[in-house]
Amino acid sequence: MDSSNDEALDIIITNVVATFRVRCHLNLRTIALEGNNVIYKPEVGKVLMKLRKPKITASIWSSGKIICTGATSEDDAKVGARRLSRVLQKLGFRVRFSAFKVVNVLAVCSMPFAIHLIDFTKKNRPIASYEPELHPAATYRIKHIKATIQVFSTGSITVTGPNVQNVATAVEEVYPLLFECSKPLCK
C-alpha cells in the first residue's frame, strides 16, 4: 500500500464454510476404516476427513450431510466438496452431490490507520457495541447484509458474512465510519 488516499484495502479470506448433501446413508465406520486422513468420533456421531488440496476439513454425518471448513475461496470450497464426494464414491457409496451452499465467510482486513473504539461505538450506538472487559474489539452488525465486523483499535478488522460479496460490501460500508474515528498519527 502506498500513502495516497485512494489506496485499495486488501480483504484476505481466511475461512469459507460450506454445506452439501450426498443423498445417501453413509456408514461412518466404513469411512473410518477404509478412508485416508480420517478421524472417527463415534460419541458425536460424525467423521472428520481432511483433504490436502484444496485444504479443507469435512465433518461427515451418517445422514449424508457434510460441512466443509477451511477453504480460502468459494470456488475452493466447491472443488473440495466435489473431491470429497468423489472420495466417498470410491469407498463404495452411491453418492449424488446436491444442495451445495456457502453458509459463512470469514475475512480479515487492515485499515491504514488506528481506530478510537470508544468514539466509534458512541457515534454508531445502536448497531455498534464495545465491552472492553469482555473482548478487545468493538462489534458492528449490519443486519441488511447479515455481516458482523469486529473492529480492533489497531485498525485490524474481522468480517463474518454469508458470502464473499457481502463481506466486501460490509468493508466498503464500514470504512467511512472507521475513518471518522481514526486516531491522529503520532510522529
From TrEMBL:
Q: Name one GO molecular function term.
A: DNA binding
Asked if the record carries the keyword Nucleus, the reply is: yes
Report the superkingdom from the record. Eukaryota
UniProt subcellular location: Cytoplasm; Nucleus
Q: Name one GO biological process term.
A: transcription by RNA polymerase II
List the Pfam families hit by this protein, alphabetically: TBP
Cellular component (GO) terms are: cytoplasm; nucleus
User: Which terms are listed as keywords in the entry?
Assistant: Cytoplasm, DNA-binding, Nucleus, Transcription, Transcription regulation
Q: InterPro entries attached here?
A: TBP, TBP-like, TBP_dom_sf
Q: Specify whether DNA-binding is a keyword of the entry.
A: yes
- Cited PANTHER family: TATA-BOX BINDING PROTEIN
Family to which this protein belongs: Belongs to the TBP family.
- The protein depicted here goes by the name TATA box-binding protein-like 1
Q: Which organism is it from?
A: Cottoperca gobio (Frogmouth)
Q: What is the lineage of its organism?
A: Eukaryota, Metazoa, Chordata, Craniata, Vertebrata
